[in-house]
Write a structure and sequence with these properties.
heterodimer, A: 850 residues, mainly alpha, Four Helix Bundle (Hemerythrin (Met), subunit A), two-stranded antiparallel sheet, 24 helices, disordered N terminus, B: 115 residues, two-stranded antiparallel ribbon, 5 helices, elongated, transmembrane helix (chain B), membrane (chain B), transmembrane (chain B), EC 7.1.1.9 (chain A)
Chain lengths: 850, 115
């Protein structure tokens, strides 16, 4: 297929071949879906390849983080040890936390979700395969950026939380902190992309009849996690931008001498950081809810209650961030709110634990290898959860704050809650990936080494903390009771590392020497096990109908029926990569989603994005502009290559039903993609408003009277531009509905100068008082607020011009109206943000003036 | 059938927890603003303006969630596991959000204003 999806020029009913043999169907489908070999693999967009790449890269970063942990334990094994100097130790413990949290845990979830979701949901791929590939390259380049800095000796050294003022340019000159801020933001682009991808795919790309109430429980976990990422990551992205801007240009957001406050960083960081714990835990809990019933030989008890608990955790986990700041002087009553929420979140967590226990109790558990790791999870995570409730109690937290007790607690939660379930999942799904069964002896030895080693390391660390040893010290004096505890912790650490190495060897051995796996080797009931092992590039030769939560239990012969082409989209046509789109709630088929072919565009775009970040690190800002222009050009080229030039007609999809190809459907994945992106964008804007209001309340002399002013003409111009653009867009869309293509193009074209007018006027507003933004945090915050709106208005102008061009090129019609609708959504969002910003920039100073 | 009954269960549960988030956020904002603006001095019936504002915010959210829960409970029809999905999510979500709002707001009755 060419880059542009062809119009529907063939017959409305394509030739069907009911007698087509499974082998011929396989060959035809594989020819359409397979990724070219050799250098062509660089253009891979297939979810199996990209998902596996994410997981393998994450495991490499896990190994790097593990080596750093061993360096830490080597240094702390004995009092007064000089294994490495303190400056290097600071880099090592900072990098350990950074690598494990940002380069291992989250990307491992993303990879797992990308690999499994289409197979579990009965689809052939994800909603935006090129976005997945772009996200992977951003992740790889961003991770390489950070690891490269470490090898060059300029790694970040202020802790994985980068607290200000330690991380400000005064106390951390050089590029160490910049590496963290820019590298992590680069990687976060990948995370936001993955969150959009996963959410849209779960909502829109499932088997026919897979209503929300029938979704595999793992999909619910992934859905809640992805939505949490959309809302939880933007505060950190904003914080990183503000801190980098402060370091690079002197805008004083965190400098109390100029109206800033270092606590603003802590708020923004933990607004991300605490939900992050649940973002890591929930996918692993989903693995448990999926794997445990298979080995308990009983379906999951309490599916409905678990889904409710997930929704509750998704919200409650955003009300905990201040419990990381109990020692900074927040009023007791506010601490009380956060303490209560920190305890409350234990309830939905416990609902899951009890559901799993009930499943075990009602079933006939068999102690296969994945089950062994799940039992390890129960022991470690429950203990970590209990110490979590302890530190949620404010007076206890004051006693153990910044001590090794907290290090022990967080490792019990994160290793127990993420790594153990993940290893269970690895043994469970490896037959799906490799087509081979595990080799049990090595896996059991690895488990016991890891389990005993982990508890030796971290159980004792609780005591070390209670005895008063603070975190992040590179050494300690002898004779105060910490010596033997640290030595044993180090021994345990190395034992754990050997266990993980054995696990890695076991995975390689399984791939090479494991016996061939039969279809559905565990007797599971979810759809991924209906596929041949390993699955072909297109997953299923026909897509399954779903009428229960356990489709393989209801239809044990489903796999063969799918391979025989007895269900949906069994006949390849026009060389299209087709999968089924469904209504969100009912799961009824509502469209045929046509997916894009492999391309190098994601790689080039990620390289251009990387150029921007590298240029920022090197302070070559002219190159940042050039890189950004290149990214924009590539993005426009990317988008231009999608879509159809003719209105599609309904096509048969099997079972006597028909559906429109997605360009002709309102609720297509592209619309959801834009809506979800704006959710993340809105979270970033909300964080920015929170930051400005936080400083207004806590920083003295906010806003400074000398910087106040009112510019009615500028405000009116800004309003005219910001409201004019969506107005023109709305009129353009109305004209399109009436079939007036020329008027539609002209009106969207009119939105471009309107957006540029709004952008210019808003950007000029903070300059009215003539004071530089480096003079006070108020001026700096107002500038960033104005630039946020101006950037969105300018991008809206580009989108309006693009939409006008699409109208002219025949890509848009009354039926194929995604570009106009998405542009209008963007313009409307920009107008709302602009109104809020104008309130702050113009009317707030007016109200606050003496 | 009310508008509430027509919404999917997961949407009702989400709305219920959005109300919890609103209550939680407004209580935190009210404490921050009240302490910054000196609302913690005794104002009426021995309670400070801050305490009255906090009580008001808390009570309004409890009342709204309570009313929604009562309405949802009246329309609830339980069935087998799949049929119970919506009521568990909708009624259960409202109940959980109400309980969480009661629990997280308790410091309004117990803790000092701006210490």
């Amino acid at each position: 297929m060419s880059r542009t999806q062809p119009g529907v020029t063939g017959p409305a009913t394509p030739p069907t071949e009911p007698a087509m043999s499974p082998l011929r169907r396989h060959r035809l489908l594989d020819a359409i879906w397979r990724t070219p070999p050799g250098l062509g693999r660089l253009g891979a967009v297939n979810h199996s390849i990209v998902g596996a790449r994410f997981m393998m890269t994450a495991f490499v970063f896990f190994a790097i983080g593990g080596i750093l942990a061993m360096l830490i334990r080597a240094q702390l094994a004995r009092p007064g040890h000089v294994f490495m100097p303190p400056e290097q130790y600071n880099q090592v413990f900072t990098m350990h936390g950074t690598v494990m949290m940002f380069l291992f845990a989250i990307p491992m979830f993303e990879g797992l979700a990308m690999y499994l979701l289409p197979k579990m949901l009965g689809a052939r791929d994800l909603a935006f395969p090129r976005l997945s590939a772009y996200g992977y390259w951003c992740y790889l380049l961003g991770g390489g950026f950070i690891i490269g800095a470490m090898l060059a000796g300029v790694a970040p050294d202020g802790g994985w939380f980068m607290y200000t003022p330690l991380s400000s340019s005064t106390h951390t000159p050089g590029i160490n902190a910049d590496v963290w801020l820019l590298g992590i933001t680069f990687v976060e682009i990948s995370a936001i992309g993955a969150a959009v991808e996963i959410t849209a795919s779960i909502l829109k790309m499932r088997g026919a009849g897979m209503a929300l109430r029938r979704m595999p429980i793992l999909a619910w976990y992934f859905l809640v996690t992805a939505v949490m990422m959309l809302v939880g990551f933007p505060p950190l992205i904003l914080g990183s931008i503000l801190l980098e801007v402060e370091r690079a240009f002197g805008l004083p957001f965190f400098d109390p001498a100029r109206g800033g406050d270092p606590l603003l960083w802590q708020h923004l960081f933990w607004l991300f950081g605490h939900p992050e714990v649940y973002i890591i835990f929930l996918p692993a809990a989903g693995v448990i809810s999926t794997v445990l019933p298979v080995f308990a030989r009983h379906r999951l008890v309490g599916y409905n209650a678990i889904v409710l608990a997930l929704v509750a955790m998704g919200f409650l986990s955003f009300g905990l961030w201040v419990h990381h700041m109990f020692a900074v002087g927040i009023p007791h009553i506010a601490q009380g709110f956060f303490s209560a929420a920190s305890m409350a979140v234990a309830i939905p967590t416990a609902v899951q634990i009890f559901a799993w226990l009930a499943t075990l109790l009602k079933g006939r558990p068999r102690l296969d290898l994945p089950m062994l790791y799940l039992l390890g999870f129960f022991f470690i995570f429950v203990n970590g959860g209990l110490t979590g409730v302890m530190v949620a109690v404010v007076p206890f937290d004051w006693q153990v704050h910044d001590s090794y007790f907290v290090v022990a607690h967080l490792h019990y939660v994160l290793v127990g809650g993420f790594v153990f379930p993940l290893m269970a999942g690895a043994y469970y799904w490896m037959p799906l990936v490799t087509g081979r069964m595990p080799i049990y002896h090595l896996g059991r030895a690895a488990f016991w080494l890891i389990f005993v080693g982990f508890n030796l390391t971290f159980l004792l660390m609780h005591l070390t903390g209670l005895l008063g040893m603070p975190r992040r010290v590179y050494t300690y004096p002898a004779g105060i009771g910490w010596d033997w505890l640290n030595l044993l912790s180090s021994v345990g650490g190395f034992m754990t590392a050997i266990g993980f190495a054995l696990f890695a060897v076991d995975m390689l051995m399984q791939r090479r020497f494991g016996r061939h796996a039969p279809r559905n080797p565990w007797g599971a009931e979810s759809l991924e096990w209906s596929l041949p092992l390993p699955p072909p590039s297109y997953n299923a030769a026909s897509l399954p109908p779903v009428d229960s939560r356990e489709p393989l239990a209801a239809h044990p012969g489903l796999g063969r029926a799918l391979a025989a082409g007895q269900h949906y989209l069994a006949t390849p046509r026009h060389g299209w990569m087709e999968t089924l789109g469904v209504e969100v709630v009912s799961g009824r088929p509502d469209q045929i989603i046509l997916l894009p072919r492999p391309t190098l565009l994601p790689l080039w775009t990620a390289l251009a994005t990387g150029l921007c970040f590298l240029a920022m690190l090197l302070k070559q800002y002219w190159l940042v502009g050039a890189g950004a222009a290149l990214v924009l050009a590539l993005a426009l080229f990317w988008l231009w290559s999608m879509g159809m030039r003719e209105d599609p007609a309904p096509l048969p999809i099997g079972h006597g039903e028909s559906a429109l190809p997605h360009p002709g459907v309102a609720s297509q994945p592209g619309w959801w993609g834009m809506a979800l992106l704006l959710v993340a964008d809105g979270a970033l804007f909300g964080s920015l408003l929170f930051g400005a209001l936080f400083l207004w309340v806590v920083a003295p002399g906010w806003p400074p009277p000398a910087l106040l002013g009112f510019s009615p003409w500028l405000a009116l111009l800004a309003l005219a531009g910001l409201l004019g653009a969506p107005l023109a867009g709305a009129l353009g869309l109305a004209a399109l509905r009436r079939g007036r293509m020329g008027a539609c193009a002209a009106l969207f074209l009119l939105g471009a100068p309107a957006g540029l007018l709004g952008a210019g006027a808003v950007a000029a507003l903070p300059l009215r008082h003539g004071a530089p933004p480096t003079s006070h945090a108020y001026a700096a915050a107002m500038l960033v607020l104005a630039l946020y709106v101006a950037l969105h208005a300018a991008l809206g102008a580009v989108m309006a011009a693009y939409t006008a061009a699409r109208c002219g090129s025949g890509h848009v019609s009354a039926l194929r109206d995604l570009a106009p609708r998405n542009t209008l959504m963007w313009q409307g969002y920009t107008a709302l943000c602009g109104l809020a910003a104008l309130l702050l920039l113009q009317f707030w100073p007016w109200m606050a003036a003496p | 059938m009310t508008g509430l009954d027509r919404l999917p269960g997961v949407v009702v549960a989400t709305l219920a927890f959005i109300l919890w988030s609103l209550a939680f956020g407004l209580l935190y904002v009210a404490v921050s603003l009240g302490c910054a603006w000196g609302w913690d001095r005794p104002a009426w019936m021995g309670l400070s303006l801050q305490r009255w504002v906090l009580l008001g915010v808390w009570a309004v959210h409890l009342a709204v969630l309570g009313a929604l829960l009562a309405r949802s409970w009246r329309g609830t029809r339980w069935g087998d596991a799949e049929a119970s999905f919506r009521p568990v999510l909708a009624t259960g979500g409202l109940g959980l959000a109400l309980a969480a709002t009661v629990w997280c707001g308790l410091p309004v009755l117990l803790a000092s204003d701006c210490l």
